[in-house]
Design brief:
It is a single chain. The protein is an alpha/beta fold. Helix content is about 30%, strand content about 15%. The strands form 6 sheets. A 5-stranded parallel β-sheet has the order 3-2-1-7-19, covered by helices on one side. A hairpin with a 4-residue loop joins strand 4 and strand 5. Helix 1 packs parallel to helix 13, helix 8 crosses helix 9 and helix 13 packs parallel to helix 15. The protein binds 3-acetylpyridine adenine dinucleotide (N01). The site of 3-acetylpyridine adenine dinucleotide (N01) has 24 residues, from helix 5.
Length: about 525
Amino acid sequence: MSSPLRDPDVLVIGAGFAGLKAIVSMRASGHSVTALEAGDGVGGVWFWNRYPGARCDVESYDYSYRFSEELEQEWRWSERYATQPEILSYINHVADRFDLRDDIIFNQKMTDAVFNEAVKRWEVTTADGSQFSGRYLIMATGSLSAAKDVLLPGQDEFAGEIYWSSRWPKEGVDLTAKRVGIIGTGSSGMQMVPVVAQLCEHLTVFQRTPNYSIPAANGPVSDEEDAAVKASYRSRREAARNSPSGLNFLASGISALEVSDEEREAEFEKAWARYGFGFVLCFRDLITDEKANTYASDFIRRKIGEQVSDPEVRRHIVPANFPFGTKRPSVDANYYPTFNRPNVTLADLRDEPIDYLDKTGLATTSKHYDLDVLVFATGFDALTGSFLKPNIFGRGGRALRDHWANGPLTYLGLCSSGFPNMFIIAGPGSPSLLSNVMMSIEEGIDWLTEMIMFSESSGYAALEPTVDAETKWVQHVNEKADETLYPKVPSYYNGDNVPGKPRVFMPYTGGVRGYRRILERVAANGYEGMVFSK
Ligand code: N01
């Protein structure tokens, strides 16, 4: 095994799904590559988010690499929705199978990246002071990897244990006979609650905004199902590539408004029973038309209510006042019935906001909850956090933080003007979090690799988007978003969950297929919007 280069052609930051794919593609295109990874193993979010119940809410066969048919054929998923340990095993398998560790340096958290214009190289410093450089910098740092900072009054006083879902200890946590509190009811909280409730003595769930969730309908994958997927994997991947979301669901072409009540109800029942996250696609206008969405929201509220026996809990837990899907919905396994257990309490923070923590627990404005363990499942500085936490300086010493002060500015969600040879994977302005992110990662990196090859074969040393192309792309992202209900609702898509963050809708809503067509057109036109320099 050779040691990774300190000054390769390409520096990749992160060794999660995107970082590993970047190594594979950069090697294949003849580049030397080194990935710097903050953790001591591969996996990115799947390395850190080891909380009880963590699993993927995209189907395993779709949430996996498509770059190697051999890999597709040899890996055997055990469940429709894979658990975090299974996904981490898969990522480790990929790293081993393709000898990717040869090009990864672990325990290296990037703190600074500076573009040296004289030599046209990115100079990177990590937390322990180590220095690296690369002609290209690929930020494969993830859209949901920078945990949101939440500090409650008196947090230091609490004598119990505090954990974060996004940094769960590798060695696990013994919750037996403990009084546990979980703050947050997004996907992480909702996945954790049913599992933790079975492990601990008592669980209190501190909920601020009740969200919508669809049942996962998870289950083991039979040998017959596995064989069937593997026999037609290419067509499955093609269908996903040509869908709006990159999931294995084709969007319905039918409006929820143009069918009878009975037909609509039947379609909702079908989606509820099987589609999971794909519920959003069961009619074409659930995210664009308020009336269509109201039908879906009412249906889901009814279904949620039916799972909860206590009318008082039901009153608090059924989401209201915002349309289904506009804030990222969850896909759950037994979340709502968990509140029928005698050892589970729901605390509604809209009625009783958190006041402070003290030695023995958490006080809301109306009650003190005695706790041994407090878990923060409070989410992420989504889409921009992992790019803006490090100090990144582009041409003329301009900070990315300043360039993005009023919201992220990208061309195609892949690069930013003034930051030559720096590329971001599944970043703001790409379908990213509105898609099967595995699809967006692979498509984005394939396209970038082609563009780099084009640039080099034409004798160029640096490339970046023009200001004009970037401005028009951001405008287009906003216009597409304005055709939907997304911008109307507080969510992390809009930056609303982080105090002080500019309110801008960040992902691209034009769909995986629509986005790819734009990428193809840009490439066919000689990478219009990019400026290449010798
Ligand atoms: O984070 P979230 P998450 N006081 O931001 C609450 C992906 N994911 O880690 O809505 C009290 O969704 C906050 O309340 P509110 C998936 O894309 C995927 O759960 O802001 N409460 C909310 O309830 C997901 O969408 C999988 O009012 C506070 C919760 O904390 C994304 O990651 C699995 C608070 C945060 O929810 C993020 O999910 C897990 C405060 N100060 C996650 N601050 C897969 O299956 C926040 N909250 C692939």
